[in-house]
Amino acid sequence: MNTYPELTRSREDMLSQNELYKPSRFWDEASQQIVKELTTFGIDRFRSLPTTLGYFVPTYGFPGNCFSQEMIEGINSRFKNEFPLEKKPQISIEQFLTGKMSAISDYRVLVAADNQSNLPYLHTFSESSFGEPIEQFEFEGRKYSRSSLNYLLGLAMLKKHLNGSVPKTVLEIGGGFGTLGEILSSSGIEELRYIDIDIPPTSYVAQVYLSNVLGKNNVATYEQTREKTLINIDSLPQASVFCSWQIEKLVGKVDLFVNFISFQEMEPHIVKNYLEHVARLETKWVLLRNMKEGKNKRKDKDSAGVETPILGDDYKTMLTDYELVDRNVIPFGYRTVDDFNSELLLFRRK
Question: For the domain that residue 254 is a member of, what is the CATH number?
């Protein structure tokens, strides 16, 4: 059994916070299970644990493609038995089921869309393998996961509108295991400050991941800042990971705010509160990824989902100081096989 005192302390501190900064119903039970798995199997295996894979470690293949391991083994076995000499179709089926075909498609969009001569540099990124990922693809000598390609596509869309301006201070809420911070830290941006705000245990996982990737001296942790009444953004190192309630303590200005997917798992009043802080920090750009149709509604007290789904147009109502400058599913977002749409939205301060 592994013990993580800082994770325990942050979870205990969360109990006394405003409900705006506690896990939503969608996340509450999952958070408890994630803590249990981390303490049982160790945080150095977080990218291969069942609950993390279902919540903040996305995959192209199992379990993200909705095929169970049993289905995958059955399809591969039956095809090999019935068509033992058909090697190319076998490879095609394998690449489809493992998610490699989808990963290649996203990578091709990234290469086609990215202007490699402009900052932030996206073509130099290669992902760390810390956390024992069950899925990671290598293209042209660099490693990628679904998490990193999701962010890289969003940043490629953002770059089309920057006109030479480079965001140096980046705030993210719900940053998963810290992928965006890892990407930006290798993007050639001088004096970068990446700030990730999340609920524990996810915030703790991101803190550990970024400390391993960037070095402990380059990451501000919850333990270092929990007693502070104010957190000056200009005094922060290359990366910082804070707990959700600490957003109220941030002072300074932000160039870019990012939220990918996690807002759609919250109730509207929680999202509205976070975006009020984004506006308070005079953020210049807001980059969001949200389910166009909204997250599934909660059917009963034991089911996953939200009470009131967040839709794309809700952000236009909440972000009164901003104008929508881009919005798309194709090419930078994602359309599911059953026609649900994960769309990207980009706002600029008026």
Answer: 3.40.50.150
Q: Check residue 3 and give left, alpha or beta (phi > 0: left; psi -120 to 50: alpha).
A: beta
Could you give the residue ranges of the DSSP H alpha helices within the chain?
A: 5-14, 25-41, 50-55, 69-82, 87-98, 100-113, 146-162, 179-185, 202-214, 222-225, 268-280, 312-318
Give bridge partners of residue 344 from the DSSP assignment: 289, 328
Phi and psi at residue 18, in whole multiples of 5°? Answer: -55, 145
pLDDT of residue 297: 83
Q: Which of 273, 210, 199 is nearest to 242 (CA)?
A: 199
Do 90 and 220 fall into the same domain? Answer: no
Whether pTM > 0.85 for this model: the answer is yes
Neighbouring C-alpha atoms within 13 Å toward the C-beta of 144: 27
With a cut of 70, which residues of the chain have pLDDT below it? 300-303
**In angstroms, rounded to a whole number, what is the distance separating the alpha carbons of residues 97 and 311?**
31
- Cα gap 1→19, rounded to integer Å: 30
Task: Clarify whether residues 213 and 322 are in a common domain.
Answer: yes
Q: Which two tokens stand for residue 42?
A: 């160790």
User: Which domain range does residue 76 map to?
Assistant: 69-98
CB count within 10 Å of CB 190 equals 7
